[in-house]
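Please go through the sequence and fold tokens given here and tell me how the chain folds. Record follows.
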Amino acid sequence: MARKTTLLTLILAFVSTFGFAQHGQACEIPVSFSNNLISATLAANGYQLNLLANTAGGTFVTNQAMTDFAIPEMIDEAGNQFVELDPFLAGSNLPVTGRKEALILPVGQGNLPENVQGALGQKWFSSYCWTLDYLAKELHCNTPPLSPLGANTVPVRFRESAAGHRISNLPVITIEVDGVEVSVLLDTGAKVLPTEAAFRALDENNAGYTAARETMPAIRPGEETYQAISFITESFFDAWRSYHPEWPVVEQADREMGNIKMIKVPEVTIAGHTVGPVWFCSRPDVEYTQYWSRFSGQQVEGAIGGNVLQYFRLTLDYPNKLAKFDR
């Protein structure tokens, strides 16, 4: 593979050999929380690069960020562009992904919140024990490992080979809704670009909601804001709606994905805790029962995102395949 490199790339690669992954020290990641979506911040060529922390997504940087921050690129023989992201992470004393190449995507293709220039995906999370503290708005890496005997601790399932080697880093857990257990992805990047009706419905769940917001003006183009959300297959969605016609529904909920509906589930039980209410967006069955199920190695019916996780301090121990949910 032919690659274009620079002296800076080589220097940073050298620095990375002494970086975070090798000494395994506990670390608080500089982050910002916006609508229960987490963005990690790292220094790149004198700038701050904000990357969405996404347990169920891929790792990439936008082409605009490559230009703005003068980040060195690699080009293979087919002309595909990549970036060596780990040297930048290691240079900022942050956990590395363990991969030499991250994708470069056009700005609009990543579906990113405002002021976010890429994403740190499932591979970034895969080797560490994390604490995603939605209550204190903090993210910690290399936190103490979990015990399967610990309170409010549940197994996390991954796709593995017959020999027990992990093939995929998509985390799957079990939740309970209306007395029924549901297998779902744990997806910190799950989000919706809400319509005005969906925005109002989601806003009513916020602690700061007041009657004055009833007179808020319509959302105008350019003011759309991504919100953390959870997803469920249309089959489950229709069943919930049939059994519980009293559960509120928004018919047109997403500005990007067309006819996506949203339903307000009063309670979700997870790791011995019952929290809510939680809004779930519908997704075509095939998206989860086939696509995501195949990549995660087990049947899944949806995903829980930051609108569920906002109730918790979540410790996610990848090496021991455990998750602990603290209130």
In short: The longest strand covers residues 37-44. The domain at 153-326 is CATH 2.40.70.10 (Cathepsin D, subunit A; domain 1). Residues 1 and 11 are 21 Å apart (CA to CA). The chain has two domains: 7-141, 153-326.
